[in-house]
Amino acid sequence: MRRMLIIAAALLAASYGAAETVVKAQLTYAPEVPAPIARTSPAVVRVDLETKEVDGTLMEGLEAPTQYHFWTFNGHVPGPFIRVRVGDTLELHLTNPAVNSMAHNIDLHAVTGPGGGAAITLAQPGETKVARFKMLQPGFFVYHCAAPPVTDHIANGMYGVILVEPEKGLPKVDREFYVMQSEFYTKQEYGYEGMTTYDADKAAAETPTYIVFNGRVGSLTEGNALKAKTGDSVRIFFANIGPNKVSSFHTIGTIFDKVFLNGGLGENPPLRHIQTVLVPAGGAAVVELKVQVPGDYSLVDHSIFRLSKGAVGILHVDGKPAPGIYEAMK
Ligand SMILES: [Cu+2]
Question: Do 21-165 and 175-318 fold alike per CATH?
Answer without folding.
Answer: yes
